[in-house]
From TrEMBL:
It is found in: Cell membrane. InterPro entries: MFS_dom (IPR020846), MFS_sugar_transport-like (IPR005828), MFS_trans_sf (IPR036259), MFS_Trehalose_Transporter (IPR050549), Sugar/inositol_transpt (IPR003663), Sugar_transporter_CS (IPR005829). The lineage of its organism: Eukaryota, Metazoa, Ecdysozoa, Arthropoda, Hexapoda. It is a multi-pass membrane protein. This is (African queen) hypothetical protein. GO terms for cellular component: plasma membrane.
Length: 470
């Protein structure tokens, strides 16, 4: 058996995943920024309604970003697309740094959302295509770690620096990851899809840390067969939706996206400091820092867990834990806002929101936070992978916008506890969904995953025809 060195795969995965530090920074920017709006430190006149738009509109910007990511990854390659994603992110961060207009701020947040949309579509495709099957899950989990790292930087520094410094940090991150990605190799699968076998082989050998040309040719033949089959059956959006053989994958990924975003992760991240100011005995800024460190540690831990446990078990435990944690937070706010218990009782349970939110943080990172990204890159064949990933990310953007935009309104009308119990109910549904519908993909090559999905699709179609005959 040919000996390989995975150092390049790890380094390339690390550099590409750094794009998500910008995503994490954009998603959590509002947590330290909102208090600066309210106390005048930002020197900006902005209403609560305008603030909610500024917080949530980046998710809408991700919608065109998904389209751009899909088109660019097919036309110029995975690597160049990841680098190009930094351009709208940099322009948006630069605009926020200097603007005093809420309208321009929303426009800048849309640009930053476009960058995030491009990143979300292409990064996981790249990672799953360059990684050996033994490390694909762990390498894919780096995305969550880097997302958490970006969040930690904002949580840890943002509350204690001026508004301009906060925005300068986001601006720096947008350029930093692009510079680090200049050296990374292109995906061999992309080269094969373009018919450039020599470039694919060169990239393959570099990624594998090997110079065994004969072995590389054998692997190229296997990959080329699957790529050729996929490209010959290249599908449109209409084909993706209407063809039965993709139906199971669509249902699975749509369900996982609902779990990933409708459990409220982005809303909690965006309003974290405000949540702790209203509930915890610990100050909002310091509680946010604790949250950021726990989130980063949980993401790193999840990276190792993904290498030992299957996707299903991690997502099952994650969904169950998220439901229980958010229920605890809802109980506190129910006692505070609806039952209106005494200050003594509230004081005795003041740590409940912190425990619940940190529990959510850890358990979300262990599964729901990132494994759906890996699954969407694994379950779809190459001929529909970019369009499927793009559509999945667009669905995620709609869900993220809905959650972050409605958070303030639901809280004001129905109470904080209603928000958290709604998130918990979605997570509870997720336990049953994952158990009955989500397959295991750990330890399988992309080719093996596709073969299994196709066999399942054929079996479902056969059962449907049998039922029609009866």
């Amino acid at each position: 058996m040919t000996k390989t060195n995975r150092k390049v795969q790890y380094l390339a995965g690390l550099c590409v995943s750094l794009a998500f530090t910008f995503t994490g920074a954009v998603n959590t920017w509002a947590s330290p920024a909102i208090p600066k709006f309210k106390n005048g430190d930002a020197n900006i006149v902005i209403s609560d309604a305008q603030t909610s738009w500024a917080v949530s509109v980046s998710a809408l910007g991700s919608l065109p970003g998904c389209y751009f990511g899909r088109e660019l990854s097919e036309r110029v390659g995975r690597r160049k697309t990841i680098i190009l994603a930094a351009v709208p992110g940099f322009v948006g961060a630069l605009t926020i740094l200097f603007t005093k207009s809420p309208l321009l701020m929303c426009f800048a947040r849309i640009l930053m959302g476009i960058a995030n949309g491009i990143t979300a579509v292409v990064t996981m495709i790249y990672l799953t295509e360059i990684a050996d099957k033994e490390i694909r899950g762990a390498l894919g989990m780096l995305v969550q770690v880097m997302n958490n790292l970006g969040s930690l930087v904002i949580y840890g520094i943002g509350p204690f620096v001026p508004y301009t410094v906060l925005n300068s940090i986001v601006l720096f991150i947008s350029a930093f990851f692009a510079l680090l990605c200049i050296w990374v190799p292109e995906s061999p699968y992309y080269h094969l899809a373009r018919g450039n076998v020599a470039a694919a082989k060169k990239s393959f050998l570099f990624l594998k840390g090997s110079n065994d040309s004969k072995w590389a040719d054998e692997q190229m033949d296997i990959m080329r067969v699957h790529v050729q089959e996929s490209m010959e059956n290249r599908s449109t959006l209409r084909e993706l939706i209407s063809n039965m053989k993709y139906r199971r994958a669509i249902y699975i990924i749509a369900g996982l996206k609902v779990l990933q975003y409708m459990t409220g992760s982005l809303a909690i991240q965006s309003y974290l400091e405000v949540i702790f100011r209203q509930s915890s005995s610990i100050s909002g800024p310091y509680a946010s820092i604790v949250y950021g460190f726990v989130q980063l540690g949980a993401g790193i831990g999840a990276t190792f867990l993904a290498g030992y446990f299957g996707r299903r078990i991690l997502m099952l435990l994650s969904s169950l834990g998220v439901a229980m944690s958010l229920t605890l937070v809802g109980v506190y706010f129910f006692l505070q806002d609806s039952v209106v218990v005494s200050k003594e009782v509230l004081s005795s349970i003041s740590s409940l929101p912190l425990i619940g939110v940190l529990g959510f943080n850890i358990l979300y990172a262990a599964g729901l936070g990132n494994l759906p990204y890996i699954m969407q890159a694994e379950l779809f064949p190459m001929n529909v992978k970019t369009i499927a990933s793009s559509m999945a990310t667009m669905l995620a953007c709609v869900l993220a916008f809905s959650v972050t935009k409605s958070y303030q309104g639901i809280k004001d009308v129905f109470g904080h506890y209603t928000v958290f119990w709604s998130f918990a109910a979605v997570a509870g549904f997720g336990v049953f969904f994952i158990y009955f519908f989500v397959p295991e993909t750990k330890g399988k090559t992309l080719e093996e995953v596709q073969d299994n999905m196709q066999e399942a699709a054929v079996e479902i179609e056969r059962l449907n025809k049998t039922g029609e005959g009866d």
